[in-house]
Design brief:
Number of domains: 1
Shape: globular
Structural class: mainly beta
CATH topology: Neuraminidase
Mean pLDDT: 97
Radius of gyration: 17 Å
């Protein structure tokens, strides 16, 4: 097993709940959100020029849209947004069954359908897929629907329920979007899995909330690499850069005591790591 260490952030963003890392290969810019602050960040990794946009409400995740802009999941529903004019338009208004539910992690599948989960009180959350501008429930009884991704052949689906401290693996039917044969794939000894991504070799990279680290896992669940971080709460990971070999890591300061924040001055910042492994370009959402 490889053990590596990152000491300094790429961007001192100071997010409350940094999430949804996304490499926009069209603009060659990296995007991520601060959920609780309702902010969208971007950075050019070549010169570190960066921008921050106010979305106007909490925003759980961001995905590239086929129209050249983005699809965002906010408190009130799904929105189309473009950074050039910083304009948004409502695609689908959503009212959750439980008032404390909020959209969390999401991603487009290989056939360009948008999957999005929620977080909230125990077993009140769900995982949906957007089909014909309607949200269809795929998993229910969740608590914190988190990291998700598909194997390169589209036959396996990985999904985290963070309150279970578990990454689950499902058999996936690409045509029907059905999920079956749920198995417990990985549970860390410390902390809980949060956001995740797969690399080009089928290995799974996951941020470990309250674990001070990111882990690389083999397709059988073996820990291949530990990336130790100076922050307690890494939240998610995504590959980016021109060669897709830079692993970007978002993080949070949410819930930390004042004395913990003093010991973790980089909590909530964006980190980056030259992984050696190659990632995959994110899929576009088509609506």
């Amino acid at each position: 097993m490889n053990i590596l260490k990152i000491n300094q952030p790429l961007v001192s963003s100071g997010d409350t709940l940094g999430e949804s890392p996304l490499w926009d290969y069209r603009r060659r810019v990296f995007f991520w959100v601060d959920i609780d602050s309702g902010l969208i960040h971007s950075v050019n990794p070549l010169d570190l020029s960066n921008d921050t946009y106010e979305f106007g409400e909490k925003v759980g995740t961001i995905a590239m849209h086929e129209n050249g802009g983005f699809l965002l999941a906010g408190e009130s529903g799904l929105w189309l947004w473009n950074p050039e004019e910083n304009q948004k338009s409502l695609l689908l208004a959503v009212r959750h069954e439980h008032r404390d539910n909020l959209f969390n992690d999401g991603k487009a599948d290989p056939l360009n359908r948008f999957w999005i989960g929620t977080k909230g009180p125990k077993v009140t959350s769900k995982l949906w897929v957007l089909i014909d501008d309607k949200l269809v429930v795929k998993l229910s009884g969740l608590s914190i629907s988190n990291g998700l991704d598909w194997s390169s052949d589209g036959k396996l689906f990985y999904h985290t329920d963070s309150m279970d401290h578990m990454i689950y693996r499902y058999d996936f039917d690409m045509e029907t979007t059905s999920l079956s044969n749920r198995t417990e794939f990985f549970k860390p000894g410390k902390g809980t899995p949060d956001g995740l991504t797969l690399d080009n070799d089928g290995n799974i990279w996951t941020a470990i909330w309250d674990g001070w680290q990111v882990l690389q896992l083999s397709p059988t669940g073996e820990v291949l690499t530990e990336i130790k971080l100076p922050i307690q709460r890494p939240t998610s990971v995504a590959f980016g850069g021109a060669d897709l070999r830079t692993l970007f890591i978002t993080s949070a300061s949410e819930g930390l005591l004042d004395e913990e924040k003093e010991k973790q001055p980089h909590a909530g910042d964006l980190f980056a790591f030259q992984s050696g492994a190659a990632g995959r370009n994110a899929n576009l959402v088509k609506t």
